[in-house]
Amino acid sequence: MGRMIDGAWQADDGPGGDVATDGGWRRTPSVVRHQVAAGGPFPPEAGRYHLYVAWNCPWAHRVLLARAILGLEQALPASVAAPLRTDRGWVFDASGPYRDRRFGATALHEVYARGDPAYTGRVTVPLLYDTVADRLVSTESADILRMLCTAFLPLAEHPQDLVPAAALDEIDALNARIHAGLNNAVYRAGFAETQAAYDEAVDTVFDTLDMLEARLADRRWLMGAALTEPDLRLFPTLARFDVAYHLAFRCSRRRLVDYPKLWRYARRFHALPGVAGTVHFDIYRKGYFSASAKRNPLGIVPVAPDISWDLAAP
Predict the structure, then answer these.
(1) Number of other CB atoms surrounding residue 64 within 10 Å
(2) Strand pairing category for 121-122 and 127-130
(3) What's the rounded mean pLDDT across residues 245-259?
């Protein structure tokens, strides 16, 4: 993935985390975590910020979902990196859909260096950039998602309360469980370097899916009748599960389609206005099965699973 040291790009071949002595994989935490808030140094203003994302990144996907569902596309312009990482990290084309629409950069690390000439850390998406102050605002997807649901809400064309104050404690607890048990656990399974580390991670994945299946037995969305932030954090993992994580990350005990309630829930979410435009199954499949010395040395991409995301499908 590569990283920057004192503003200079350094390439490497790692998956963007650390492998512990027990063979388990640990995600490197984000280091840029400023907040957009009224009255602060980063006030919510339409057109002031630029969002950098990639279609294949599940962490960027949750932010794109909020942007689409709330109708923030005009208030928060975005640039999409090419759906592959190179020895320069995330890169852009000179023209076409994968170009830097704000600065014309050829690689995302150039944007990082512009916003912080002494930046040290990973170069990841999503990135929220302040074009007025010419500074990096945040590289933490959970923070950016929460900001879009709260600070940016007055700028939304389709505002809805995705983090109701009365349910905030339960929302935060559910977010944490979904992150540890599923969003991040599929990566711990996929990047594990010992059988014990893999077994622990994959058990966690399916324990969490079982919990979510049971939770949806008597409710339309994770928190009940209304869509909330945890739904936006869960869906990107579900969208990638059968097409990628099931085989590429060896999360092979069951598929999403083997969970009747979760499968219908996922299709219901996919049918929401604006959501389908953020979903790119072929990009996920090709990305997760791209050539990797450890996971897929020959770079053979398997055929797509024969399933339909049409809500009317059986």
Answers:
(1) 28
(2) unpaired
(3) 97
Return the bridge partners of 16, or none: none
pLDDT interval class at 21 (50, 70, 90):
low
Q: Could you tell me how far CA 62 lies from the centroid of its own chain?
A: 5
Q: Domain count for the chain, please give it.
A: 2
Q: Is 187 a catalytic residue?
A: yes
Hey, what are 227's tokens? 């869509």
Amino acid in position 37: A
pLDDT at 267: 98
Predicted model pTM: 0.95
Q: Choose, from 49, 52, 57, 149, the residue flagged as catalytic.
A: 57
Tell me the sheet residues that pair with 314: none
What is the separation of C-alpha 137 from the centre of its chain, rounded to a whole number of angstroms? 17
- Examine the domain organization and report whether 47 and 149 are in the same domain: yes
SS3 228: coil
pLDDT at residue 270, as a whole number: 98
Q: CA 229, 35, 129, 180: dihedral to nearest 10 degrees?
A: -40
* In a domain? residue 296: no
Question: Would residue 193 count as lying in a domain?
Answer: yes
Tell me how many degrees the CA angle 158-266-98 measures, rounded to the nearest 5. Answer: 65
Radius of gyration (C-alpha) of the chain in whole angstroms: 19
- Report yes or no on 286 lying in a domain: no
The active-site residue out of 112, 119, 187, 284 is 187
